[in-house]
């Protein structure tokens, strides 16, 4: 056994620092492996940097980092072939907690190198080892091997350490963790592999973990067909040169699609993407993909991965990416995003805000570019990208101002218009007596078909707003568009949707109107239904059931999370208007029916037809309607 050169006390300010590190500094114990591999990458990148600066003239050789474990000995080892440490450097960097070797290295070579490849920042990462280990051993040999022998450092998680000479032929550092009883879950091949793939998938130095079986060609058989055999190959966990680190000029569409499949193996191809590459006033790289979004927001969120110098940090990026772009997929990488000391949580500052604003601007620029470049293709994609655009216009004033140039209205006939185009289209027919524009819309083409047709008969156009955000989007548009209101096509009769000076004369006398109203009120017998007699075109339906635009919109807003007044109004009982078309021939038939029972049956039949058109006729009422229909035609 080597002679102990020195014993001492780790330099810390309080005896309680270890319990804090072990239990509270890192929220997730699996982080220890991320930190150790990141340190190994740092050591390797430092050596490459010194070589590029002429400070190291030896052979770099194979720089692959290796992670291994021994279940019987209960150890996990992380080995690198990087810069290594002398005994004095071990004392300096390991014994002085929170003394960051990376920070000192960058400072030392700041005039010769930008240090952008160095990950470490706080100097605490190594000590995360003690969350899972009873003892940690470091064996390190400096790249200055001719001058210094290797050093061994040992610590059992107390403030006591030992430092001695060691035998190590190769340059670099081995960190050996003796796993404690509570953490034996980490002594599992697939557990370690999963952690490495999560945090280290794109680190810039190859990382080996065990081997894998690979099928290789092995000659031909008697018929000349190729034969294959299985060989053990090194399992390299990571892709050291992920797509976002490359220049967009050297990439093709298939490269972006391939990388998307690497990130999300079971997803549909994205619609398009944005490659971010900023170096001033902050550093930001990455690729953001526009996926085909389903209506379930929560399923689609948290798909953007945040990295810092290719080390995975989190997929909780709500402070970096504006909320409406949380539905995007992809990768962001920035060393300028402030993290807490454990690198586990984002901390808000001016850089985060600038990055968020930049991402918003780039998304707006990309959408505008697509619109101008190929409008037909943009229209084809609109149904998928509209949720991003509408969400952004609702929540971000600046994005609204950019997006209003390319945002689209789609009508029930699947035609697309910009805001300005649509205004000019409907202005002649859909301007009311007070010079206000009225935009009509449907939220369900099937259920509201009869109302859509009634509007079209009056030469009105009907937009389609059937998305999860559309009730909020309509409210935003009413605040932004001058002298413009929106009405759902089934919120009133066609004659009343757009109030004009025109008036249709009623064929009924006042007494007849009162009689018809009484007949229908008795037949309906429902206090939530308010009956009125209207003068409409004879070809319109005999009965319309509507909910006021105000009440229905309140209820729609409440469904998608509107609080306050929306929640209060949304919980109120449903109230409907029943509009009787006094000019329809069936009303005369009801008035001239032989007896009160026949009048009531005909009125109930007309009313049930209106319910049926709104998909509101169910249960016993539907059964009675069918029986009554058979009786009336037999």
UniProtKB/TrEMBL annotation:
<dbReference type="InterPro" id="IPR020568">
    <property type="entry name" value="Ribosomal_Su5_D2-typ_SF"/>
</dbReference>
<feature type="binding site">
    <location>
        <position position="173"/>
    </location>
    <ligand>
        <name>ATP</name>
    </ligand>
</feature>
<keyword id="KW-0143">Chaperone</keyword>
<dbReference type="GO" id="GO:0005524">
    <property type="term" value="F:ATP binding"/>
</dbReference>
<keyword id="KW-0547">Nucleotide-binding</keyword>
<feature type="binding site">
    <location>
        <position position="85"/>
    </location>
    <ligand>
        <name>ATP</name>
    </ligand>
</feature>
<dbReference type="GO" id="GO:0051082">
    <property type="term" value="F:unfolded protein binding"/>
</dbReference>
<dbReference type="InterPro" id="IPR020575">
    <property type="entry name" value="Hsp90_N"/>
</dbReference>
<dbReference type="Pfam" id="PF00183">
    <property type="entry name" value="HSP90"/>
</dbReference>
<feature type="region of interest" description="A; substrate-binding">
    <location>
        <begin position="1"/>
        <end position="343"/>
    </location>
</feature>
<keyword id="KW-0346">Stress response</keyword>
<feature type="binding site">
    <location>
        <position position="80"/>
    </location>
    <ligand>
        <name>ATP</name>
    </ligand>
</feature>
<dbReference type="Pfam" id="PF13589">
    <property type="entry name" value="HATPase_c_3"/>
</dbReference>
<feature type="binding site">
    <location>
        <position position="39"/>
    </location>
    <ligand>
        <name>ATP</name>
    </ligand>
</feature>
<feature type="region of interest" description="C">
    <location>
        <begin position="560"/>
        <end position="634"/>
    </location>
</feature>
<dbReference type="InterPro" id="IPR037196">
    <property type="entry name" value="HSP90_C"/>
</dbReference>
<dbReference type="GO" id="GO:0005737">
    <property type="term" value="C:cytoplasm"/>
</dbReference>
<comment type="function">
    <text>Molecular chaperone. Has ATPase activity.</text>
</comment>
<comment type="subunit">
    <text>Homodimer.</text>
</comment>
<dbReference type="GO" id="GO:0140662">
    <property type="term" value="F:ATP-dependent protein folding chaperone"/>
</dbReference>
<keyword id="KW-0963">Cytoplasm</keyword>
<feature type="region of interest" description="B">
    <location>
        <begin position="344"/>
        <end position="559"/>
    </location>
</feature>
<keyword id="KW-0067">ATP-binding</keyword>
<comment type="similarity">
    <text>Belongs to the heat shock protein 90 family.</text>
</comment>
<dbReference type="InterPro" id="IPR001404">
    <property type="entry name" value="Hsp90_fam"/>
</dbReference>
<dbReference type="GO" id="GO:0016887">
    <property type="term" value="F:ATP hydrolysis activity"/>
</dbReference>
<dbReference type="InterPro" id="IPR036890">
    <property type="entry name" value="HATPase_C_sf"/>
</dbReference>
<feature type="binding site">
    <location>
        <position position="35"/>
    </location>
    <ligand>
        <name>ATP</name>
    </ligand>
</feature>
<feature type="binding site">
    <location>
        <begin position="100"/>
        <end position="101"/>
    </location>
    <ligand>
        <name>ATP</name>
    </ligand>
</feature>
<protein>
    <recommendedName>
        <fullName>Chaperone protein HtpG</fullName>
    </recommendedName>
</protein>
<feature type="binding site">
    <location>
        <position position="343"/>
    </location>
    <ligand>
        <name>ATP</name>
    </ligand>
</feature>
<dbReference type="InterPro" id="IPR019805">
    <property type="entry name" value="Heat_shock_protein_90_CS"/>
</dbReference>
């Amino acid at each position: 056994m080597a002679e102990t050169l020195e014993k001492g006390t780790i330099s810390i300010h309080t005896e309680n620092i270890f319990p804090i590190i072990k239990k509270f500094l890192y929220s997730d114990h699996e982080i220890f492996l991320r930190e150790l591999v990141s340190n190994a990458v740092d050591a390797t990148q430092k050596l490459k940097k010194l070589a590029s600066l002429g400070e190291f003239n030896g052979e770099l050789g194979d720089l692959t980092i290796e992670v291994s474990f021994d279940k019987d000995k209960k150890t996990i080892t992380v080995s690198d072939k990087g810069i290594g440490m002398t005994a004095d450097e071990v004392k300096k960097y390991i014994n002085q907690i929170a003394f960051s070797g990376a920070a000192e290295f960058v400072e030392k070579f700041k005039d010769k190198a930008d240090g952008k490849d160095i990950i470490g920042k706080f100097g605490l990462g190594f000590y995360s080892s003690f969350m899972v280990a009873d003892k940690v051993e470091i064996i390190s040999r400096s790249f200055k091997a001719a001058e210094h022998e290797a050093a061994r450092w040992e610590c059992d998680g107390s403030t006591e350490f030992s430092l001695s000479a060691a035998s190590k032929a190769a340059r670099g550092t081995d960190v050996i963790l003796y796993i404690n009883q509570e953490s034996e879950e980490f002594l599992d091949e697939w557990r370690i592999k999963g952690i490495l793939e999560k945090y280290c998938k794109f680190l810039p130095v190859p990382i080996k973990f065990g081997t894998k079986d690979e099928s290789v060609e092995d000659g031909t058989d008697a018929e000349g067909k190729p034969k294959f055999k299985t060989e053990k190959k090194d399992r390299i966990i990571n892709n050291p040169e992920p797509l976002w680190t490359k220049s967009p000029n050297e990439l093709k569409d298939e490269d972006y699609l391939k990388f998307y499949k690497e990130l999300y193996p079971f997803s549909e191809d994205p619609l398009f993407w944005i490659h971010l590459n900023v170096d001033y006033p902050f550093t930001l790289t990455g690729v953001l993909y526009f996926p085909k979004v389903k209506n379930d927001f929560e399923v689609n969120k948290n798909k953007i991965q945040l990295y810092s110098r290719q080390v995975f940090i989190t997929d909780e990026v709500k402070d970096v990416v504006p909320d409406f772009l949380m539905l995007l997929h992809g990768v962001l990488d920035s060393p300028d995003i402030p993290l807490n000391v454990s690198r586990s949580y984002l901390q808000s500052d001016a850089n985060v805000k600038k990055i968020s604003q930049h991402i918003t601007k780039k998304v707006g620029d990309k959408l505008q570019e697509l619109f101008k470049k190929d409008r037909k293709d943009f229209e084809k994609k609109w149904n998928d990208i509209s949720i991003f655009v509408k969400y952004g216009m609702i929540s971000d004033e600046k994005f609204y101002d950019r997006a209003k140039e390319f945002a689209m209205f789609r009508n029930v006939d699947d035609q697309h218009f910009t805001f300005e185009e649509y205004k000019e289209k409907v202005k002649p027919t859909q301007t009311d007596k007070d010079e206000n524009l009225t935009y009509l819309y449907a939220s369900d083409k099937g259920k509201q078909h009869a109302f859509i047709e009634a509007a079209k008969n009056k030469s009105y156009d009907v937009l389609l707003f059937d998305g999860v955000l559309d009730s909020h989007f309509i409210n935003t548009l009413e605040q932004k568009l001058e002298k413009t209101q929106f009405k759902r096509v089934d919120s009133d009769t066609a004659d009343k949707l757009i109030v004009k000076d025109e008036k249709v004369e009623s064929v009924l006398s006042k007494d007849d109107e009162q009689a018809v109203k009484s007949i229908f009120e008795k037949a309906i017998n429902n206090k939530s239904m308010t009956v009125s007699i209207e003068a409409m075109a004879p070809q319109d339906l005999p009965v319309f059931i509507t909910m006021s635009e105000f009440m229905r919109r309140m209820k729609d807003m409440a469904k998608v999370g509107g609080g306050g007044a929306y929640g209060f109004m949304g919980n109120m009982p449903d109230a409907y208007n029943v509009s009787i078309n006094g000019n329809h021939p069936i009303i005369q038939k009801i008035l001239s029916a032989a007896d009160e029972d026949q009048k009531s049956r005909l009125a109930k039949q007309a009313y049930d037809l209106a319910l049926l058109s709104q998909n509101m006729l169910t249960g016993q009422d539907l059964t009675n309607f069918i029986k009554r229909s058979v009786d009336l035609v037999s």
